């Protein structure tokens, strides 16, 4: 990868510079749900309390797009990334009003082939409606970042090269046609990423991609995130932030800064 995309993603590109990742929170559904076997749902009340804690502690929740731009400009010290995977309809219904109340922004990663459908990929969980085409268009027009979660919520590792291209390039093309503007962020379905997947995302023209765990791929195309659940109050969030910084430090100490996945294969 050239230096410019890395700078756009807000990560260091200089030789010998430490590899660091911003603190990004990972949400899925914000709703009242008794049946939640995958622990992906946060109640609206708990979500509001979590956002209130961020505000009280002097932090501001922002989209990943805004966070990385601020990092590139050197002014992201008190910013926290807020992400919502899968594109559940309750993002617009329950999360957006709370975020607006606090002056926060966020990123919603949606699955273009399944808009208006449900989360059929979760066989043991309750069926949850996804955002419709019209809702995604309205959210984008209102300034919310819309990112890609693949075409059909398919895990990328193990796919053929043409399938990877379709899931990354195809989903970006579909969303850009839908929202009438650039889509620069990708989120790996199930958080699953390997080197070919990261290469495919970079080749598809995205500026960044979100994963979950810290790994050897940690960087602009595998940004780690912090899972947030319904049990997470202020002290648990503070502990998770500390754990993120510790993992970030360990990841950076284990090896020197590396080039992007594409450069590593040259």
Q: Would you write up a description of this structure?
A:
With 266 residues, the protein is α/β, with parallel strands linked by helices. The chain is built from nine helices and ten strands. Strand 6, helix 5 (133-141) and strand 7 form a beta-alpha-beta unit. The chain is globular, with a radius of gyration of 17 Å.
Which radius of gyration do the C-alpha atoms yield? 17 Å
Number of contiguous helices: 9
Distance between the termini: 11 Å
Summing up helix and strand content along with how strands pair, one would put the structural category as: alpha/beta
- The chain-level mean pLDDT equals 90
**Based on CA inertia axes, which overall geometry fits?**
globular
Features:
single chain, 266 residues, alpha/beta, six-stranded parallel beta sheet, 9 helices, 39% helix, globular
Helix-strand layout with pairing:
Layout (H helix, E strand, L loop, with lengths): L2 H6 L15 E4 L1 E2 L10 E2 L1 H13 L3 E3 L1 H9 L6 E6 L5 H13 L4 E4 L22 H9 L3 E4 L12 H19 L5 E3 L7 H9 L4 E3 L15 E2 L6 H21 L6 H4 L2
Parallel strand pairs: 1-5, 1-10, 2-3, 4-5, 5-6, 6-7, 8-9
Helix pairs in contact: 2-4, 6-7
Short description:
By secondary structure, this protein is an alpha/beta fold. The chain is built from nine helices and ten strands. The chain is globular, with a radius of gyration of 17 Å.
